[in-house]
Fold:
Amino acid sequence: MILAGCNLPGSDTVSGESIKRITWFGFASPDVRGKIDESKHTISVTVPSGTLLTALTPVIQYLGTVIDPVTEMPRDFTHPVVYTVTAKDGSTQAYTVSVASAETIPDTLRLLIVGNSITYHAPDPDIGWYGDWGMAASCKENDYVHVLLSKLSDCFPRTTFVRKIQTIVAWEQDFSVDLSLFTEIACFKSDVLVIRLGENVDNTYAKNNDYYGTLTKLIQSYADTSTRVIVTGNFTPFRYKDSIQRSVALDHGWYYVDLYYTGILRENTAYGLFADAGVASHPSDAGMKKIAESLYYVIQEILFSR
Structure:
């Protein structure tokens, strides 16, 4: 399954005058995202058990001139609600939105995040980095790991999230590194495994050293048959590495989160905030938030389906 890290409309074969499409549907509270079936023009949304359906405020992104009913107004979703988008040429398209409460949510979720300096970097004054969290967030609470955990806890207050993070830059630079050296996670049985790395893998080295096979081996070292795996693309886009990471995820039935439209936007990087170019190439608070949101909606889907 592919999930984008940003909601940008793709190319459309129809005239711009006749475009009428809902591209995003969710709620502000609880913060959930709906599944859009464009072929049937239906949208299904799952909310945590106990959510009051009579006054939910939708957040909608659409292509067209107007949508009816208006967005960001509380509505009763006890029964399906029809939203109609009108194009510039006056043509319309209706979408039927159905909301259901999740029957059960796990009491505990064990989350393992395997990454690099975007996930965590100790202080390094030599390069102007003094934080003890994901580089280059302004504070611990604003790196993607902590933003993600905060959002999950807000949406699922009855679930205990047991998380473990591990940076494996050494593996990114040398695929022959013994994975058993990472003892803290070797015995950590995770329900969800997030693979958030790749930026430190040299492109030529990846091509010459079976990046597909070694990445697959890495993931399978920390995941069993019941683990739900999420692989992200690179924050700094690399066409070859991103294609491999995407293929590894999809070929094995894992989730793939595309970060291309996050990393290419300068405001999502820390350029201008740090003198060292290496530090500055990392996500700013805005970039960290985008990464966290992308992962949040996938883990949310996993929780609703367990």
User: Anything to note?
Assistant: The chain has two domains: 7-101, 108-305.
